[in-house]
């Protein structure tokens, strides 16, 4: 056997059981699979001249951490420019914008991201509070949910947006005042694209470099893989280019979008592309949207929110969505549906149930986000075999325990008390997968796992948790990014655990993540990351 990698003097943690294996070392074959487990002497004896041998000095090796919902290409594009995510109020935003305007050249665009609608307090979300500082400046400010943005007056003028528009996406909107004048708020992709298409675009080389840098940072944070929830534009070409150059440090499962208006030929094309890819990436699944977001009033709720909004599906005809799910199911193509509101989640589950009734073949469908659901919805995930893909840090960082945040106030007390029901879904038998939804929230997986356990604001852990009864245990959080992520990708036979024949996608931590307190987990050092038995990150000071 030719050996690619040997890790010795290690504590091998199996997420399947939560226990350490009796062995202290492992060897990885040239195939990228774990070929042997044993003691240090036995594994070192398998090393050849080209084998990388790492003495871990008692560090913990676990199955590689996988982000269950990630947008690396889009995130790399969106997170350039000014980061507004740390701004707590309108004054903070104005100060940040003013500083950035001072650095711009004549005619330059200002791009920003991460704007939290909570900074507006009780005021309507719009560009008006920033008109003075952005006078004459074309600016595009992406809100934190990436489903909406603010465009400055000059940007709207350049784009020729001077009133309402109609879109195929039912919840897309150029928000206007009572006189029909745009407020600057653009809801959903179709509306945002009106301005984005006239703004300066990065070159291919710039996009490639940004993506490569983002993926390297993810590997350094301990990620070995991700379930990518888009494949728009040049995304697949960029991934293929990095993969061919040996610069893809994560294993990526990519689901291209199916938007409202997709015809039969479009669905056939989505089916035909399944299974294509390269060494470390492949197309597997289709991403659909059933609604928007609660914060901007575009979720689909069974009763209107407190502003009388969030009453419509993303698809103008929800029955058309159901038909597409049925077609994809018959083809054996798994789906991942963005469904945040209770009506959206219910309809997504109904569509899967109908598809299964007409074609009984096993297909692992997913619902993404699941921010608020009633009791009678919980059990259906397990009954239908639908994976519950959740992002606990959204609850931690974008809502408050006292329900004074924008999300909670829109929903009202009853539905806000059903926030991110990770525990209830887990206990109902659902397979819960955890992720970040980066760039919506930070991607470090230890932060995601910690949030699932403490449910407190990441920036201030002294604040009370939001619905602490929905917290997961340390082992459940780890399984949500290992065992369960592998199951969702239909890879449980070869990923998610430390076992002979499994892929050598491995994350090495300085200590046991199961005994590290949740508050301390994000600071636990990542010492080494390997994908296919090739080291993608190594902390040379400690490993």
Automatic annotation (TrEMBL):
Q: Does the keyword Transmembrane helix apply?
A: no
Q: Where is the Amidohydrolase domain?
A: 52-537
What the entry lists under InterPro entries is as follows: Amidohydro_3, Metal-dep_hydrolase_composite, Metal_Hydrolase, YtcJ-like
Name by which UniProt lists this protein: Amidohydrolase
The superkingdom of the source organism is: Bacteria
> Record's CDD domains?
YtcJ_like
| Record Gene3D superfamilies | 3.10.310.70, Metal-dependent hydrolases (3.20.20.140), Urease, subunit C, domain 1 (2.30.40.10)
Keywords for this entry?
A: Hydrolase
Upper lineage is: Bacteria, Bacillati, Actinomycetota, Actinomycetes, Kitasatosporales
Q: Which GO terms describe its molecular function?
A: hydrolase activity
Q: What EC designation does it have?
A: 3.5.-.-
Please report the organism this UniProt entry assigns to the protein: Streptomyces roseoviridis
